[in-house]
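Subject: Sanity check before I submit

Could someone independently write out the structure tokens for this chain? I want to compare against mine line by line before I put it in a report. The sequence has 99 residues.
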Amino acid sequence: MRPVPLRPHPTPAATQQPAQTKPPARYLTNDEAAEFLRLSPRTLEKQRVIGGGPRFRKFGRRVMYAVVDLEAWADSRSFEMTSDPQYTEQHAARRSGPR
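---
Independent answer below. Compare away.
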């Protein structure tokens, strides 16, 4: 007589977690975002007007920044050295722009 193979007990559908759950987006105020990036809150305010800052969202009159957008914006400004072609290109464009 052969032994019966062990089968895992099925778990109820209510307790099963989906394979991939997306964590809820976390939003920061202007002051919190500035602290997160270690910038002045005024710098973020200026960048919202002239451009070049992180993506933001408006909820009524409130301006909010998603943490993932702040991290993506910071990552896009990552360079190895000041002679990096991307670095010199980005800074040359800033110097020649209107002031």
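---
OP: Matches mine. For the report I'm noting this point. Residues 25-79 form a domain with the Arc Repressor Mutant, subunit A fold (CATH 1.10.10).
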